[in-house]
Write a structure and sequence with these properties.
Elements lengths: L1 H25 L24 E3 L6 E3 L8 E5 L16 E6 L5 E7 L6 E2 L9 H5 L5 E4 L4 H8 L4 E4 L9 E3 L9 E4 H6 L20 H5 L1 E2 L2 E5 L5 E7 L4 E6 L2 E2 L9 E2 L1 E7 L1 E4 L2 E4 L3 E9 L2 E9 L7 E4 L12 E7 L3 E5 L3
Parallel strand pairs: 3-7, 4-23, 7-8, 17-23
Antiparallel strand pairs: 1-2, 3-5, 4-5, 6-10, 9-10, 11-21, 12-13, 12-24, 13-14, 14-15, 14-16, 17-20, 18-19, 20-21, 21-22
Amino acid sequence: MGDTSARGRALLSLTLAIGLGLCMSGCVPQKTTPSASPTPSLTPTVTAPPTSVAPLRGTTVPAGSLDHASIAAKIDNLPSARPQIGLESTDLVYQELVEGGLTRYVAVWQSSIPALIGPVRSIRPMDPDIVSPLGGIICYSGGQQRFVDLMRKTPVYNAIHGQADTASTFFRTPTKAAPHNVLVKAPELLAQHADIPAPAQQFQYASAPTSTAATAGTPTAAISYAFSGVTSGSWTWDAAKAVFLRSQGTGPDLDSAGAQLSTTNVVVMRVTVTVDQNVPKTNLMGSGEAWISSGGRTVHASWTKASATDPIHLADDAGAPVLLAVGNTWIELVPTAGSVSVVAPG
């Protein structure tokens, strides 16, 4: 037994020795492969979508989103026509003198097209000079043939109530009495004239809050005006809402939802008025005095218009262009026989 155990131990020792020798002479050491470094993640480059400027508001909008015509309309302003439909969505509104010391509007939509606008009424002799710089579409219910002929000569598509081409877009609403009840389906009308291009920019705009009035004007609580002995109104600054609120006569001027009409900019232009066969005409070719209000301030200025297709140009008393605040604008074409008053706070 003892010999067998001794021989076993000797055999095991020999085997270990041979294995160790073989490994020392021929074993290939294993290489440790280092773990790969993680690939750094790259932050994707985000390209801002292209933008453009809304031509009648100065706001920044997605490029191509406003590549369509403007729609202007001759809007009734008699008490029986109020509240009008769509005025709260306008880009521009021009208020003008008509017969009897009353006023009507030329309202313009392009940035936002409401489902309905109106009530529309007949054309007047100054309207071609107002809408010609816009191109686009003008909606009205007719008028004296001499004035319709003038409007048809402009670079504006005439959409007239009672014509074959407006049979599907103009209608009389039962909610108002004639003749104060002609409304227009504005999106449908615009879709019928998709080939008409967008309007040119009408006024110059500043980056908020650096409008000319806001930076160089005098503090203003209200702008009051009178077109005649029977038509007056005012715009009152609301600092909380950063807009001017509209009143006619002695009461608030409301939209169809019951809210008071408002605007970012008020442009008051003093204009001469001539009368032909009892029809007043606001004269827009030439120049005159103006007041431009935005941001709760007002700057004194002048206006000029060189031709029917030229936009109105506004300049301060030093001759520099007046920059409006970004937003909507109401233009009050107040006769020189009327009055304008800028009311200071307090």
